[in-house]
# Entry
Amino acid sequence: MSDTASTPTPDAAHARGNKRDRDDEHLGGHWLLAKLGKRVLRPGGRKLTGWMVDRARPTGARVVEFAPGLGLTARELLDRHPASYVGVDEDAVAVAATAEAIGDAGRVVTAKAHDTGLDDGCADVVVGEAMLTMQGDRGKAAIIEEAHRLLAAGGRYAIHELALAPDDVAEEVKEDLRKQLARSIKVNARPLTVAEWTGLFESHGFRVVEARTTAMGLLDPRQMLDDEGPAGVARIAANLARNPAARKRVLGMREVFTRNAEHLRAVSLICEKTLAPGHEITFAEGVAAGADSARLTAHDITAEAPAPAEGDRPAIARLASVAGVNLIAMRFTAGQVLPDHKAAHPITVQGIRGTARFIVGDRAEELSPGRLVHLPAMVGHRVEADGDAVLLLSMHTGEPGEDAAG
# Structure
């Protein structure tokens, strides 16, 4: 997919009533910015997206992404080596763009976010950005309910959306701001406060485990440089200079964003699926039900390791995500490589069968059965194998269990 100014963005397809053939005066804000060459259309930019992806813990997980846009976040997710990736979008442009961006590393299906057609419990992580804000109350609820259906118990729903601040902002201020946004971006955006976003997810069977807010910098010059790079900003500026109608629209959007900066934020929430909407079994309830033994899990790593994968990368399967640790099995065949990458959490990697090399810088450690290495978070490393090998990756998330002391 070309990065030229003519590249459309599928993100705006989620704003009801937007059409790509409208003139620049009436085109939805996201479509207009994409037409001008802007590629990053998230309120908190690449930095907040990167935080969200890391905290969603996609490594070894089955990932579903709603409204993948041009595939930028899909590539970030795939760089963390999920067990699988499925993008879901109702717009043909989005499907084609994401499919081109990810190649054969995943698949993309044409469907609505609230009715994906995917199986119950097929995902460990669901990701969605800059799309719930564009929905009314019913639309938001339907999409969140679909995410809940797709996720296995304990799965994570990660979002990056527009928020209002502070939590006690007056209702008349909210309504006035929503009207200003609708007039400027030509989309009936319905952002919520962080407290309202949290309450919405809790009412649909999730608990918010992490949240981060940043400035809403979609048209902020510094964020644009970070997101688009100097060449990208120059391309957008040149297109604006050639298009007075588009320039007037963009300046109007920026004026609304600037005037309301104290009330506009970008927010990312990491939400965990509970066992049923509005309820999560506590440790005390488990004990009362005589369920202590059910808290013990056991794995035969050799038997549960995935079947060998074709290509130059190993097969990866997430065995469990339990309090404090994710357990992930990796199966290599001769010549397969897990290329240079970083983990968001400390890890240990143990040899189970065969031999592989764990490489950090110019140091290589042989991982034969019974050998184990430990690495802190965010240290670059790679893994290579000359023959068949099975490894156990333990990603130490540091999240306490329900019965953990302290």
